[in-house]
Amino acid sequence: MSVIREVILNDRKIQLEFGKFAKQANGSVMVSCEGTQVLVTVCASEKPNPELDFFPLAVEYIEKSYASGRIPGGYLKREGRPSNEAALAARVIDRPLRPSFPKGFTNETVITATIVSYEHGISPAPLALLGASSALMVSEIPFNGPVASLRIGLKNGEYIIDPIEGDEENLDLDLNIACSPDAVVMVESSARFLDEQQMIDAIDFAHKTMKPLFDMQEEVRKELGKEKWPLEEIKVNSELVEKISQKAENPLAEAYAISNKQLRQKKLADLAKSLDDDLNPEQDKELSSEIDGIFSKLKANFLRNLVLDKKVRIDGRSPTEIRPITCELDLLKSPHGSSLFTRGETQALASVTLASIEDVQRSETLWSTDRKERFMLHYNFPPFCVGEARMQRSPGRREIGHGSLARRALTPVIPNSESFPYAIRVVSETLESNGSSSMAAVCAGTLAMQSAGIPLLSPAAGIAMGMIKDGERSVILSDILGDEDHLGDMDFKVCGTREGITALQMDIKTPGISKNLLKEALLQAKEGRNHILNKMEAVLPSAEKIKTAAPRLVHVKIPSDKIRDLIGPSGKHIKKIASESGTKVDVDDSGIVSIMAPDVNAAQAAKTLIRTYTSTLRVGDIYLGKANRVTEFGVFIEIKPGVEGLCHITQLNKEQVTTVEDVINEGDAVLVKVVDIDRQGRVKLSRKEALGKKPTFAF
């Protein structure tokens, strides 16, 4: 028997139906809002995996083409690998739910959200997270919910709940947020130069708007909730904890005094092995796992106390201090722009490729059969950047997510297509990583684009921030390391220019963070961002204009009555121009000819050919033509398509010519000058007057 619950949000009715679909799952619900419907299921293994020291959660977000009444494009008419949008939506569901499970829960858990019906204007991702939290609330799976999500837009100072997909470029703020009843858990946003207070106000508005979603889930839990599986009590071996603490105290302090990441990790690994050898001579697997768990907690406590008590970090920096930064341009010879951005032990190599506007990224989404992205940013994280010996694979969710964040950070500073009509691709290769590699991609991307001569509206930079909090004590950290990210209570990445924020990503792992503390963190991030921009701007004056080898978009104006001559019969002439010059040529009804050329030389070649086809014959012009017919008295030379002139035998050379074939044969290229055009339009040519001169036109 199905149970239906409804909640009204922003005058829209959201309906949740339990007990009708996928009843063999631990929890399932169909979430509907007008024409959008998402089926969400949660399944977990009944027994925990004691060998795991992490929570094995997997989230699938599946878009079905039939949801929007379409058959998948391409040859294989079946859904394939998830789209980038689906991968990003899965991350947005995973990130707030993962910390909402109890610590020590290691049962294999899978959450599946399937979009089975879609109406443009009703975003399925927030419904999917609501459904996942609701299904977990009524299932046997231990869960510290509820959690809910909203998508908020800001336009002309007005908040828009669930703005239309595909309209992001027209918003001042596009905010995806997930919350529990008493805390913000996750934020993912793009913005157009908003200040810190505007971001905090939007987050606060979204959290308050979600209250009906929390209340509904609590009511459903009370009515339909199953008894939760008992969690195995984590027994603490106090004696073992004391032994490890005594043995590791001094060596741990020595290890964390090492600023080099790899040397520090080796020292810690040696210490862990020494503890296991001393306290577990029989190499018992259970005891070894227990020792490892205690040592991990000891490391976490040491680092947190170091920051809270002494305001000192692993590498000796103060909480607000940024690691040393170096910026270099044009290290790669062939790409249209490149840069190397190094911050401490994090390094990104960015390259830029410019291309015709026809080379935009085209994709099929639920709301569009032909979505176009003119600006692309791809982030790569090869294993060697952290010293791992394994093969590279295709980009995973992490790479897609980091690339999306960097792209959203830089999109507001990209000039529009009218002022800069190019497709732009930025690729960021992470060469070293010790925290904040996605923010290095933002900085390197800015440098590389300005190296390529792209007239950015303003340089943009990114910084990763963290927070350590214990009760009333808290310390905000600028430019965090990987260890600080792992052990901290809040991880947030802030990107922007001196004018304001362009992107924000935040994961809060502990409740009770006030608006004032959040504002303090964002203001500290602003100081760090401006410091990084100072370092970047110091090298930007050396950036050049668009390089000679980069593509060129050139415009040529021709008379409207010459458009037919340019195009030719069935497009013969314009195709020939494109083929011979290696360019793409288009002409509009006003006579504006657009030439997209791979380089300056090709652009010039295309311009010359266009002038040849569209020029009006004038006495004195010099043409490089083609000998079509040789006669006893001279040669007929085609100087432009469909136009021939006669070069008399007396005009072939300065010396006397006995036979035409002594000088010219049929098919030869001939440089000639127009010496006369009679009333009947017949053209007289002279080769001898053109000798030693450059052609005005070439055919």
Describe the structure.
- With 699 residues, this protein is an alpha+beta fold.
- The protein folds into five domains: 3-153 and 195-224, Ribosomal Protein S5, domain 2 (2-Layer Sandwich); 238-256 and 267-310, no CATH class; 325-542, Ribosomal Protein S5, domain 2, CATH 3.30.230; 552-606, 2-Layer Sandwich (Ribosomal Protein S8, Chain: A, domain 1), CATH 3.30.1370; 622-698, OB fold (Dihydrolipoamide Acetyltransferase, E2P) (Beta Barrel).
- The strands form six sheets. Strands 8-7-9-10-21-20-18-19 form an eight-stranded antiparallel sheet, sandwiched between helices.
- Strand 14 and strand 15 (371-373) form a beta hairpin.
- Helix 1 (84-97) crosses helix 8 (397-410), helix 6 packs across helix 7 and helix 8 (397-410) crosses helix 9 (437-451).
- The chain is elongated.
- The mean pLDDT is 89.
